[in-house]
Amino acid sequence: MNESLKLTITARTKISKGEMSKLRKEGFLPGSLSQKGGESVSFFLKRDEFRKALNQNGMSSVYTLQLDKKTAYPAMVREIQYAPGFGDFLHITFQRVSLTEETTADIPVHIKGRDELVHNGHDLVQQLEAVHLKGLPGNFPAAIEIDVSGMQPGDTVTVADLQLPEGVACLTEADRLVVSVPHPKLVTEEPAEAEEAPAAEPAKPAEGGEE
């Protein structure tokens, strides 16, 4: 098993706000596990351990929540609550899944080669940040990667062009545009205004006029 997908959890009972605050300061994050047809499980886990696992595997991976030597739950992240202001994790909710039953998940789209594309003087427009997939939980990728480094103006990538793992179907419309490289805008120069003719000098009075 991928050890980065294993999270050690500690069962949590009802505790006071003071005890909760103390555990947070000690680096623990409260969480819960929802189970279809069963009671939810409340627990704590180490905040840094969860952050590291999430950065490595993403939201759509199946994690193993290890309660004790005999009890482990396969689960996917359902919701993350963030603390207001500084934005750190406040609470994490997992959904228990069956590895033999299909489910759905929103999988993020990751762009590769954007810097090279921009270096070549092109722009990139991303229309979709994620696609909706259906399949066995263990078959979901952490992300759908698109390499745009070789794209040229006028090139597009639609949902139908995405490479998906075997056994995974996309529920997002096939003709939806994911990314595109637009043609550069033509800059038309305004014609220079004709130079103004120098103003005529006022006529000088005739010499030898009447006295």
Notes on the structure:
This protein has helices at residues 17-25, 47-57, 114-119, and strands spanning 6-8, 10-11, 28-35, 38-46, 63-66, 72-82, 89-96, 103-112, 125-126, 130-135, 144-147, 156-158, 169-170, 177-180. With 211 residues, it is mostly beta strands. The strands form three sheets. Strands 1-5-6-7-3-4-2 form a seven-stranded mixed β-sheet. Strands 11-8-10-13 form a four-stranded mixed β-sheet, with no helix packed on it. A three-stranded antiparallel β-sheet has the order 9-14-12, with no helix packed on it. The mean pLDDT is 87. It is elongated and about 95 Å long. It is built from three helices and 14 strands. A hairpin with a 2-residue loop joins β3 and β4 (38-46). The termini are far apart.
Topology:
Blueprint: E1 6-8, E2 10-11, H1 17-25, E3 28-35, E4 38-46, H2 47-57, E5 63-66, E6 72-82, E7 89-96, E8 103-112, H3 114-119, E9 125-126, E10 130-135, E11 144-147, E12 156-158, E13 169-170, E14 177-180
Parallel strand pairs: 1-5, 3-7, 8-11
Antiparallel strand pairs: 2-4, 3-4, 5-6, 6-7, 8-10, 9-14, 10-13, 12-14
